[in-house]
Specification:
By secondary structure, the chain is α+β, with helices and mostly antiparallel strands. The protein has one domain: Cation efflux protein, cytoplasmic domain (Alpha-Beta Plaits), CATH 3.30.70.1350. The strands form four sheets. Strands 5, 8, 9 and 10 form a four-stranded mixed beta sheet that branches. The chain has a two-stranded antiparallel ribbon with strand order 1-2. Strands 3-4 form a two-stranded antiparallel ribbon. A hairpin with a 5-residue loop joins strand 1 and strand 2. Helix 1 crosses helix 2. The chain is elongated and about 55 Å long.
């Protein structure tokens, strides 16, 4: 059976996908790490949002790329964590926003898209998405040149 295990047919002949939680065939559980990874990928699908600034002891650290530490980037996955309780999920994201975009507008777009995509891909009900904007991206790195 595929990941979209099908177990119920309605009167119209449509097949409903299985949902997380207890089913007539057993238990379906989506791990927190899977939900966090899906949420990070969904956030990255919003063009004006990206990976958050690195932090050490709660403070944003700039210029740490030479040390091999993740930098603020619109092409890297944002930091994400998730908690799943049965069929309900909560997500936390740390993102950066492209300057001069509206931070509330980008955060709202990320929140809506993350909820939609994670619910679509997992069947979970996402009750909360907390977003922390830790940096503004003021310049974009030029794409690598082919020699």
């Amino acid at each position: 059976m595929t990941a979209l295990a099908q177990h119920d047919q309605s009167a119209a002949g449509e097949v409903e996908p299985a949902r997380p939680g207890r089913t007539e065939f057993g238990m379906i559980r989506v791990d927190d790490r899977v939900v966090a990874r899906l949420a990070a990928q969904a956030a990255l699908e919003i063009s004006d949002a990206g990976a958050a600034a690195p932090r050490v002891l709660g403070r944003v650290v700039s210029g740490v790329g030479a040390l091999g530490i993740r930098q603020t980037s619109l092409s890297a996955l944002p930091k994400a964590s998730a908690e799943v309780d049965g069929s309900i999920g909560r997500i936390e994201l740390s993102i950066s926003v492209l300057w001069p975009m509206s931070v509330p507008a980008v955060a709202a777009a990320v929140r809506g898209h993350v909820i939609e995509r994670v619910q679509e891909l997992t069947g979970l009900q996402i009750n909360e998405v907390r977003i922390e904007v830790t940096d503004l991206v003021t310049h974009l790195d030029a794409p690598p040149r082919v020699q």
